[in-house]
Specification:
It is built from 10 helices and 9 strands. It is α+β, with helices and mostly antiparallel strands. α3 (39-53) packs across α4, α6 crosses α10 (259-273) and α8 runs antiparallel to α9 (240-248).
Length: 290
């Protein structure tokens, strides 16, 4: 408790009062009765403090943070989106795919998101900056109408260009540096692709490198992926949490993962894999808002 008080600025009697009256926080108890707090507990306590500073009453602040916690469960503490989602969803079936297949699925997700011209949250991990630069023009177009967009790669520094996504540097030792991920979290379209590169492929042709991968259009899972991506990004850019929090706290729309959405995305994937589409954004649907 002393460490938690030092990190959050909340005094021990206050924490005990919160726990007694609101059941928050909920630390693990040792047989001796001593409390043991996790890093997640510290994060939630800090969020309650931030909500209180906006004028919310204590009970309302705690309830809001609880809702956020339910939507953004712990899972990416080690900095891996792939491993975090697998821990939360062990039922996910992964497949060994070459990079060229991941590129096809990524383009299909990006195109479906771009065609809707919605205020989406967009995230992608490119591993290396040179891979991102090849897709930079494409992602500049995607980021234009997006509510928030960020890309991760081995950039030298953080960049937040006005005409493109936030560029977040990752270190070669970070677990995310071995991953390929694309997330589109929008009101009427949700999709997530995540792949982990198997080790020992330094001598393999780039587009033939194999990734253990899965993808999903389940809106709740995609929102969890968005929350995890924000958590990873916040390690390099702490203010991201405040920028994206309102969007992450919005209710998940089930229509974002309906059968029609899945069919359109699947058709795009098949077209890319078969070579029937070139990697560029389609024109927005006439009924889509600009």
């Amino acid at each position: 408790m002393r460490e938690v008080c030092a990190k959050t600025g909340v005094e021990a009697p206050t924490l005990r009062m919160w726990e007694q009256r609101h059941g928050f926080p909920n630390p693990r108890r040792l047989p001796s009765g001593h409390r043991r707090y996790s890093p997640r507990d510290v994060e939630l306590i800090t969020r309650v403090i931030q909500e209180r500073e906006t004028g919310l009453a204590l009970g309302a602040a705690i309830e809001k943070v609880r809702r956020w916690s339910d939507a953004a469960p712990a899972g990416a503490e080690d900095g891996s989106l792939f491993a975090g989602l697998r821990r939360l969803h062990p039922e996910l079936e992964s497949h060994l795919l070459p990079k060229r297949a991941l590129v096809a699925i990524s383009h299909a997700i990006e195109d479906e998101c771009g065609a809707g011209a919605e205020k989406a949250m967009l995230f992608a991990s490119f591993q290396q900056e040179r891979f991102y630069r090849k897709a930079q023009a494409r992602w500049r177009d995607l980021a234009g109408p997006a509510r928030f967009a960020a890309v991760l790669a081995d950039f030298e520094q953080v960049r937040d260009p006005a005409d493109g996504p936030l560029e977040v540097p990752i270190h070669r030792a970070d677990p995310i540096s071995r991953e390929w991920s694309v997330i589109c979290d929008a009101p009427s379209f949700a999709a997530c692709l995540s792949g982990w590169e198997r080790p020992g492929q330094d001598e393999v042709d780039d587009m033939s490198r194999d990734f253990e991968s899965f993808w999903s259009t389940e809106p709740a899972l995609v929102r969890q992926a968005s929350c995890m991506a924000c958590s990873i990004i916040a390690r390099a850019v702490p203010e991201v949490g405040e920028r994206v929090r309102p969007a992450l706290e919005e209710p998940v729309s089930e229509r974002a993962g309906d059968r029609a959405t899945l069919t359109r995305l699947t058709n795009r994937i098949v077209a890319y894999v078969s070579g029937g589409l070139s990697p560029r954004l389609p024109a927005p649907h006439p009924s889509a808002s600009a």
